[in-house]
Amino acid sequence: MILELDCGNSFIKWRVLEASQAAVFAEGVVDSDVALLGGLHSLAGLSLQHCRLVSVRAQEETNRLVGVLVAAFGVSISCAAPAREMAGVRNGYEEYARLGLDRWLAMLGGFQLASGACLVLDFGTAATADFITADGEHLGGFICPGMPLMRNQLRTHTRKIRYDDVAAERALESLVPGRTTAQAVERGCTLMLRGFAQSQLELARSYWGGDFSVFLTGGDAELVADALPGARFVPDLVFVGLAMACPLS
Ligand SMILES: Nc1ncnc2c1ncn2[C@@H]1O[C@H](COP(=O)(O)OP(=O)(O)OP(=O)(O)O)[C@@H](O)[C@H]1O
Ligand SMILES: CC(C)(CO)[C@@H](O)C(=O)NCCC(=O)O
Ligand SMILES: [K+]
Fold first, then answer.
1. Is 164 a catalytic site residue?
2. Which residues form the active site (predicted)?
3. Which residues contact 59 (CB under 8 A, 6 or more apart)?
């Protein structure tokens, strides 16, 4: 079996593939290394041979996790690394190694699935957009705060914005103007994300007319999905790219 890990800034997304790589044996989202180990140790019938991993965390944090996994499971671990070019995509950053690896892998996955020009949108801790032309040139992208960061900035820097998770969840039943603090903030931030997504779509149209694919991924993709009809929601897009960047030899 193969363990796949996407270590973002807030959460670790993990899944275990059957040895054939054709089926998912188990998957989850955890907020710490300890919770990851706990989740894996609780799986009956787990038998890991390999692990592939992408991280946007600090090198020391990533190394620590790799050490823990090697100690716990004795697996060989392949970590996605920056590249100037891969699978027909050319990294557009002035310093290619500075492009977030989660963005890079989502781009590789998107370009392969699209086999043409694409716009890749990822809504996690940060929200990101990346543009790839039909011949694989990465034009660059945009980064802005995602839902968790926008919400937390308002909570942290105001005295009277306070509400609980239940109120937050209920607030998104509709997007009409809010009549409670929770509604006003949750809907306002959701509309910011949708506006971000729609302006990326307009830019893509100005480049490519109608001839491109839009990919939507990340834990908060559902908040913008119905503002982007025609976009393909691919929750595991980073994992698609991870398998391309870290093939089992
Ligand atoms: N099952 C889930 N577990 C945890 N968070 C989830 C889940 N489903 C949706 N979310 C939401 O997804 C968001 C985090 O998204 P994601 O896990 O893609 O971010 P991340 O990878 O930590 O961030 P980034 O990629 O920007 O570093 C949070 O706002 C969270 O509320
Ligand atoms: C933007 C995030 C935080 C999104 O997860 C990540 O891709 C990252 O840390 N990137 C490095 C900075 C950059 O991509 O320019
Ligand atoms: K991510």
1. no
2. 102
3. none
Domain CATH code at residue 115 = 3.30.420.40
Q: Final residue of a domain: which of 45, 62, 79?
A: 79
Q: Compute the distance between CA of residue 137 and CA of residue 150 in angstroms, rounded to an integer.
A: 31
Rounded alpha-carbon distances, angstroms, from residue 26 to 6, 47, 48, 145 = 14, 12, 12, 30
Looking at the fold, whether 25 and 62 belong to one and the same domain comes out as yes
Domain containing 111 equals 85-146+187-238
Q: How many C-beta atoms lie closer than 10 Å to residue 147's C-beta?
A: 23
Q: What is the pTM (predicted TM-score) of this model?
A: 0.96
Task: Quick: pLDDT tens for 14-28.
Answer: 999 998 888 999 999
146 touches 197 (CB < 8 A) = no
Q: In this predicted complex, what is the ipTM?
A: 0.93
Residue 89 and residue 58 share a domain: no
**158 annotated among ligand-binding-site residues:** no
